[in-house]
TrEMBL record:
It comes from Oryza glumipatula. Transmembrane segments: none annotated. GO terms for cellular component: cytoplasm. One of its GO terms (molecular function) is ATP binding. This is Protein kinase domain-containing protein.
Length: 312
């Protein structure tokens, strides 16, 4: 419970120490530059995260702060040479370096339109000692949490939630097929673009799990309590085991309910499963808490972008 309290407390206090100075120029310098209209670097770029040596922090100038979390600060940055826009997640070395490395390691295994892309890991250098930064694809609409806050508690239209659910499930299906469990699925970790794309982000506590059937021993307690399934919230009462993949589906279920209701609601497991199966319009299917998919591509082609107007 102490860990739960610690996590809840840290979630309330989003102004935890993050570096106030990072070694790249700020918006004033950016404004002096002659750049064409800003474009985000292509999410389908062939730049793998492992080619980190191509980029240095000094290659970027800061445009704005996109968000702050427990892991660090995320900046909107512009590449000086190409003027391409990125998100730069800067983490402090007090444990953050290791975490950023794990996050980068997982992101470097992924190349899905439904998962935020990591273009490079920018390691600490002599001039930037203590900082580790992930150079991420910029998702220009921000998190669904922020979108929901702008709507001041108004529920999302069902068609928009269906679209969010379908894309998030596509991301989870992709990850789970590679044995990656996200473990922190919630509106704050789903990013939306003004083009209507939804992407899973923040792999700070994600895990690559060994190929083994059945339940896994519960990973160390981490995540966001409100989005945890009962067996994850209290593993001891469930034999110390839960399925991390089913836990992701649960987190998405709570997310869907929250977007539909405009707040977190109480529910039973069966209700969650029925709700997800009703709201999703693709061939996804939730059976016994697990995500089943068939013929992803056929359904993806038919997706509509219902929630675009929410981002205005
Ligand atoms: N690629 C991105 N494009 C646009 N905005 C982003 C991007 N990545 C993160 N953000 C913004 O920054 C915020 C914090 O990012 P993120 O969740 O990755 O940080 P964190 O420190 O790991 O957070 P947490 O404390 O929830 O674990 C997000 O909620 C979002 O608003």
């Amino acid at each position: 419970m102490a860990l739960i309290r610690e996590k809840r407390f840290s979630q309330m206090n989003l102004s935890l120490h993050v570096p106030s100075r990072v070694p790249f120029q700020d918006a004033a310098a950016a404004a002096r530059r002659q750049c064409p209209p800003p474009v985000a670097a292509a999410s389908t770029s062939s730049t793998p995260a492992s080619r980190a040596s191509q980029f240095r922090l000094a290659d970027f100038e800061r445009v704005a702060v996109l968000g702050r979390g427990n892991g660090g600060t995320v900046y909107k940055v512009r590449h000086r040479e190409t003027c391409a826009l990125y998100a730069l997640k800067v983490q402090h070395s007090g444990g953050g370096g290791e975490l950023a490395g794990a996050e980068a390691d997982i992101l470097s295994r992924t190349a899905s339109p439904f998962v935020v892309r990591c273009h490079a890991v920018l390691p600490a250098s002599a001039s930037a000692s203590g900082y580790v930064a992930l150079l991420l694809e910029l998702v220009d609409g921000g998190s669904l949490d922020a979108v929901a806050r702008r709507r001041a508690g108004a529920a999302f239209p069902e068609a928009a939630v269906a679209e969010v659910a379908a894309q998030a499930l596509s991301g989870l299906a992709y990850l789970h097929a590679r044995r990656v469990a996200h473990l922190d699925v919630k509106p704050a970790n789903l990013l939306a673009s003004t083009d209507g794309e939804v992407k899973l982000a923040d792999f700070g506590i994600a895990r690559v799990l060994p190929p083994r059937a059945g339940d896994h021993r519960a990973p160390p307690y981490a995540g966001t309590a409100a989005y945890m399934s009962p067996e994850r919230f209290d593993p001891e009462a469930h034999g110390g085991r839960y399925d991390p993949f089913a836990a992701d589906v649960w987190g998405l279920g709570v997310t869907v309910l929250e977007l539909l209701a405009g707040r977190i609601t109480a529910f039973k497991k069966s209700k969650m499963q029925n709700l997800l199966n009703c709201v999703i319009t693709t061939k996804f299917n939730i059976t016994n808490g697990m995500l089943q998919t068939t013929d992803l591509s056929a359904k993806q082609q038919g997706q509509e972008r219902h929630f675009n107007n929410l981002l205005d």
